[in-house]
Amino acid sequence: MQKITTFLWFDGQAEEAMNHYISIFKNSKALSVTRWPKGHALEGKVLVASFELDGIQFQALNGGPQYKFTEAISLSIDCKTQQEVDHFWNKLIEEGGEPGPCGWLKDRFGVSWQVVPEQLPRLLQDPDQAKAGRVMAAMMQMSKIDIAKIEEAARG
After folding, report:
1. Whole-structure pTM over 0.90, yes or no?
2. Where are the beta strands (DSSP E) in 54-101?
3. What's domain 74-155's superfamily in CATH?
4. What mean pLDDT, rounded, does the chain reach?
5. Smallest Cα–Cα separation from 65: which of 13, 134, 126, 142?
6. How far is residue 29's CA from residue 27's CA, in Å, rounded to a whole number?
7. From residue 127, how far is each of 55, 116, 122, 133, 149 by CA, in Å?
8. Would you tell me which of 13, 15, 16, 31 could form a disulfide with 50, CB atoms 3.0–4.6 Å apart?
């Protein structure tokens, strides 16, 4: 059992968000949905939805409009290929998401994500500071990370 679970606060879109995320990530599934009971003003609507994304558990709460997501916390996706970067990037910004700088984006629900190819941290941590600096400069010019361009920058 997972000891720490990310809990996401939505304003009425918890089930929609859960279903959207499950459609994007392999090995993902809904675990449970708790609805408001009969007689409650929100009867039948989702209160809490639990789900797994690639084996990691999350919970989504329909808590109301008082809290919004910010970039102060984000979910980071490790990618092996440009195809994987493109898949997650495109699926997460579709239908109202917003691209951001340096591999960051906000999805249509306002959740911040980082779509990170495995090559990026390795190149940024290279002991050759000039090489790492070129990679950093290239990344700073990007929205979605382009693996070929950061590798080209590393080569100089």
Report:
1. yes
2. 56-62, 74-79, 98-99
3. 2,3-Dihydroxybiphenyl 1,2-Dioxygenase, domain 1 (3.10.180.10)
4. 96
5. 13
6. 7
7. 34, 20, 10, 11, 20
8. 31
Residues listed for the chain: 156
What are 48-62's pLDDT values in tens digits? 999 999 999 999 999
Q: 106, 96 in Cβ contact below 8 A?
A: no
Copy the structure tokens of residue 61.
Answer: 């709460």
Question: CA–CA distance from 48 to each of 12, 14, 17, 100, 147 (Å)?
Answer: 10, 7, 12, 29, 38
Architecture per CATH, domain 6-62, reads as 2-Layer Sandwich (3.30)
Let me know: does 82 contact 147? Beta carbons within 8 Å: yes
For the chain, the domains span: 6-62, 74-155
Sign of CA dihedral 140, 84, 9, 13: positive
